[in-house]
Every structure is written in C-alpha cells, then in structure tokens.
Amino acid sequence: MKISPEDKARIAQAVAEAEASTAGEISCVLAPSVGDYRETPLFWAAAASLIIPAAALLLGFKPQALATMFGGWSVGHAADVDATIFSALTTYIGLQAAIFVAVALIVSLPPVRRALTPGARKAEMTHRAAVAQFQALGLANTRGRTGILIFAAAAEHRAEVIADEGIFSKAPQAVWDEVVGLLIEGLKHDKPGDGFVAAVRRAGQILAEHVPPDADNPNETPDDLVILTKGPRK
User: Fold this and answer.
1) Which pairs count as long-range contacts for 105-114, CB under 8 Å and 24+ apart, including other chains?
2) Which of 9, 6, 11 is nearest to 183 (CA)?
3) pTM for the full model?
4) Which of 25, 173, 198, 213 has fewest C-beta within 10 Å?
C-alpha cells in the first residue's frame, strides 16, 4: 500500500488542526506488515502430514499398494508378515514426509502464508506492534496521559486505536470503534490518506470534548505520519 507525499501532508495538517483544540496528542503509524508468520507453514504442513494419510487409511488406502505402484515387490508368503508391516510403515512415513514438504513450500509463499494465518494471530501481532509504537513515540509520556495512536497494518488488513488512560476512560468504547471504522473504510478503498484524515478528525473531536487545551498547549509528539520500513516483528 503506497501513500503519496500529498497524503502525508494532509495527515500532518489534520493532526495539527485536531491538536489545536485539545491538550491531547495524536500520532499516526502505517506498517507494511507486522509479522513474518514463519510458524504458519510449519503448522499447516504438520497438520496436513498427520491428517491426510490418516484420512486416506480410513477411506481404504493401503500403503503397500503405493509401493507396488512404483515398482516395489509385494510379499507373497505368510512368514513375511514382518517385512510387509515394515514396508507399509516405510511407505506411510514417506507419504507423510512428502506431504509435509509440499505443503510447507506452498504455504511459505507470502500471500498464501498471510491468508492462512489465523485472524487471531494477526490481530495479536497488530496489537503488539501498536503498543510498541505507542511507547516509542512517547504517547505514554504525555503530561495528561491523553495520547492517542492511530495504527494500521497494511498486509494484515488490521487497524487499531490505542488511547492512554487519561482519555480512554472518559469516552465510551463506541467512539473508538468509530475512529477505527473510519480508518478501515479508507484502507479498504485503497485511500489510506482519506482513512487517516477521517480517523484523526474524529479522534480530535473526542479529545476536544473531554480534554480542553492547556494555556501553553505544547506539541509533545510529531504530527507527521510514521511509515515503518524495518522488517516485520516476530
């Protein structure tokens, strides 16, 4: 997801205008991705290698038949039961290994890996990244504990708003959901600038209602949109 210099300027202006009517602080962060989800291919590969061969057995598949199909010898004497069992187990294990490798390679493709990562995992990673940025940008250290972070993770299609205790307790959860909804609406239509500007304006209204500006009203955090460029967090 790309964002233009014009959009960056619009967002910074929206933040400055919102903060002019409140003692609160607003910061915006856009992350291309917040996780590499390396565990996802292993999870799906392990599940497939356990479930598919077992399901095949229940449906009547015989491992020994696979060995014979590819040129193996079949055992024709009752005394060779041990050899038959060993051959069947070897074929079964080989089938599991082949399925594990094939599924792991397919799910390792970034689009597939992200698509098959559970939503709860992506939500957890988005929240972790948002909390880390909230701390890094100094929003937890504002004078009135009234900092707000508007955070979006593009690859995960997740957005989150973190409000410090000085403002979060003064407004109902529904208004924070509104801020997130405005951001997501812009992101869904590939208009991140519009989404951030709308979310900032709504957050500014909430702050202005509950946290009026101080006499000096210093700007404690940067107004510019922060775009993360480092690799995803693990």
Assistant:
1) 105/41, 107/40, 107/41, 107/44, 107/45, 108/41, 113/37, 113/40, 113/41, 114/37, 114/155, 114/156
2) 11
3) 0.79
4) 173
Q: Which residues contact 83 (CB under 8 A, 6 or more apart)?
A: 75
Residue extents of the structural domains in the chain = 5-37+118-227, 39-115
Written as six digits, the tokens of 126 are 């988005």
Question: Going residue by residue through the chain (234 aa), what tens digit of pLDDT does each one get?
Answer: 789 999 999 999 999 999 999 999 999 999 999 988 989 999 999 999 999 988 887 887 666 655 555 445 555 554 555 566 666 678 778 888 999 999 999 999 988 998 999 999 999 999 999 999 999 999 999 988 999 999 999 999 999 999 998 888 888 888 999 999 999 999 999 999 999 999 999 999 999 999 888 888 788 898 999 999 865 444
Quick one: CATH architecture of 5-37+118-227? Roll (3.10)
